[in-house]
Amino acid sequence: MFAVASWMSVVGVTLPCMVSELPSTLRYLAQQQRGVVSRSQAIRAGLSPDMIKFRVRSDRWQQLHPGVYATFSGIPGRGAWLLGRVAGRRAGAVLSNQTAAELHGLSDKPTSPIHVTVPVQRHLVAVSGVCLAPVGEGGRGLLGGSQPPRTRVEETVLDLTQTAKTFDDVCG
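Structure (tokenized):
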């Protein structure tokens, strides 16, 4: 059997969860994405919509928001929530502004709301606790290979300077 590691932690305690019932491709995605998968990823990996519903109803999975699931029980960590917010926005979405600053270590505390930048051609649907910002065809500078996807440090700093109210806030 395959044990899941540290991305399933609740207040610093690793949950002894098993995900051996997942197809190997979905298991790999879940490992890479802090236990979070989208509905489309699960279906592409071979699960049917009924299999997904069963996992949610039986409390093996939990719905973070429509179409995005934590493949474990227990309280999702901050990383799982952030990844869930980006996964819910689909292709091209990245964490940005104060949320990206949090992930880059430029901020001392978790931010609220979660800032997500999405391609302008995507249909934007409001989600509680998420600040959505559209971006044109040129896109955003994505930090390669980052999980969750976020803007590069340089672009994050530029975003923060644009939202700062005073010069002291820019320097901070």
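The chain is about 35% helix and 15% strand. Confidence is low (pLDDT under 50) at residues 1-19.
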